[in-house]
Every structure is written in C-alpha cells, then in structure tokens.
Amino acid sequence: METMDQYRTQPFEPEPDPAYDDWGDYEDPRPKILWGRVAVLGGALLIAFLLGRAMAPDGIPQSRLASAQDQRDELQGQVDQLSTELRQTQRQLTQLQNSPPPAETQEEPEAKEEEPTIYEVKSGDTLLGLAQEFYDDPQLSVLIAEANNMSANAKLNVGDQLIIPPKPD
Questions:
Q1: Residues 6+ apart with CB under 8 A from 123
Q2: Residue 154: per-residue pLDDT
Q3: What is the domain count for the chain?
Q4: Which of 4, 58, 81, 112 fits a 20 to 30 Å CA distance from 145?
Q5: How confident is the model at residue 38 (pLDDT cuts 50, 70, 90)?
Q6: Where are the beta strands (DSSP E) in the chain?
Q7: Which domain range does residue 152 map to?
Q8: Within a domain: 121
Q9: φ, ψ for residue 81, nearest 5 deg
Q10: Residue 23 pLDDT > 60, yes or no?
Q11: CA distance 53 to 15
Q12: Rg of the chain's alpha carbons, rounded to an integer?
C-alpha cells in the first residue's frame, strides 16, 4: 500500500492541454528596443549638429582681434616701463643701504602743534563728559565750550559736530 507521504516530495504538475497554446501571450521581462526610433533620434541629432556648425560664425571679427592685440601691446609697454622703474628703485635702495648713515646733529625738535579734533555728539554726551574723555579733567569743559562759541552749560544736540581743541600744557 502506498502512503501519502511518498507523494509529498514530488511536485504536482497537471497534464498539459494540447489544445491550449500560450506562447503568443508570453510577455518578455526585457524591454523591447525600437531601433527605428533610436536611428531617427540619432539622425536628428546629427542634422542639428551639422546645421549648428554651418551657421556658426567663424571666430571673432578682425577689428576686435586687432583691438585686443593693440591693447596687449600697450599693456606690455606699461609692464616694461614699470619693470625699469622697479630696477632703478631697487638700485637706489641698495645704494642707500650701503652708504654710511648721515652724521647726527643736535637740532631742537620742532614743537608739533596738535590740531583740534572734530567730534560728533552722541546721545547722552555732555561738555563735562567730553572734557573727562579727552582731557581726563572735567574742569576743562570750558575750553570745548569756548572753541565752539557756546556757554559752559549749553545743551548738546545729537549729531552736532564739536571742535575739541588740543589739551593745554
């Protein structure tokens, strides 16, 4: 007697029906390449390339080329001139470095007069505060007031420009 276990390992395949033929309904998993379309596209690209080459201008105009060459020659002349000036300056520098230093003389240093400073008033500034800031002495606020033709207790407006005279000795 045969048992069912013997048939478990064998796959079940029904008998093929000879009347049914499915080979025409089979879909190939690979895409079909339509070579006619590829050839037409390649031909169109080739024609576009050839038309573009035929209609393209032949380089730059001669007038523009001549202008660029003239400009190049002019700039080359400037480079040559600057190179000559550089060599002369380097020679002068070398001569100055090799020459002995000038003899020191006892001359009185000229007293440099300091120029007044222009200050733009900011919010919260006062004459006393500015004197403290510039002179380290708020009592010198009178100098700032006199230089600007105002009283010592005048109100300052934001954006005004004040003359701050040099600190007295």
A1: 158
A2: 84
A3: 1
A4: 112
A5: very high
A6: 117-120, 161-164
A7: 117-164
A8: yes
A9: -65, -45
A10: no
A11: 67
A12: 49
